[in-house]
Write a structure and sequence with these properties.
The protein is mostly helical and 84 residues long. It is 77% helix and 0% strand. It has one domain. Helix 2 runs antiparallel to helix 3.
Length: 84
């Protein structure tokens, strides 16, 4: 097993990439003096948070729907008279 296989998988996640880009921009503005207005930084942070929350919600609903389909499929395949 490769020790960094899980890390590579996490870093390919679109939410993680978005979070890293937002953090780099915010830190660069703070410490390198990019000169971005505070309103723009707050607005951008809000957009990133909304994206992350919305994307997590959509993924959770997709997992829930997949679990429902899997449960229905397993019940349909069960032989008559078996209790599940």
């Amino acid at each position: 097993m490769q020790p960094f296989a899980d890390l590579a998988l996490v870093l390919r996640n679109r939410r993680v990439i978005t979070l890293i880009i937002a953090a780099v921009v915010l830190l660069a503005n703070q410490y390198l003096g990019l000169g971005l207005p505070a309103d723009l930084v707050q607005w951008g942070s809000g957009v990133v948070m909304a994206f992350l929350l919305g994307d997590a919600y959509v993924e959770a609903k997709a997992h829930q729907a997949a679990a429902t389909v899997q449960a229905a499929t397993s019940q349909a395949k069960a032989p008559a008279g078996s209790a599940q």
